[in-house]
Amino acid sequence: MLSDTHPNAVWLADLYRGGAAISADPGLSEDEKIQRLHQHTVEVMEKMSPDMVIHTGGVRLAATGGMDFMRRYMKRRAGLADASVEPVQFDQILADDHYGVVHGTFRTSRGDWTWTRVGMGAWRFKDGLAVEHWELSDGPTWDEFFLAGDPEPFTGSAQEFWTRGV
């Protein structure tokens, strides 16, 4: 049964809420935030399988890939926005031995465009590790936002879009 106290739910809460708390801490300098966010990332990655698979948001930009793709995708996604995917609030974080869900409000911005939305992340676990993640959001708006952030017109595959230049 999914619960908010299962170890996988606790890990998901730390993954999402921990990074958000560091980013929002007004007592930290930018350098301290970067250092703490890096350490936080290292710690949460320990629970991700080296064979982790991610299914990105979007329709035109929906792509699936492994850990190398995920790292490149996260870097490219951050480069196309001022604030890539900031958690605003969480309604529920539930998990069991096999699956987890995160339901909340997220914000992405670039210049004058701030896109705030309700979204979900779904996770699959195996042998205590996160092995698969799905980003669930408004796919057409996802595509519109990230394609508009690319300085050059793009006609290739979603995989090529997310790995271009990174």
UniProtKB/TrEMBL annotation:
It comes from the Bacteria. InterPro entries: NTF2-like_dom_sf. This is SnoaL-like domain-containing protein.
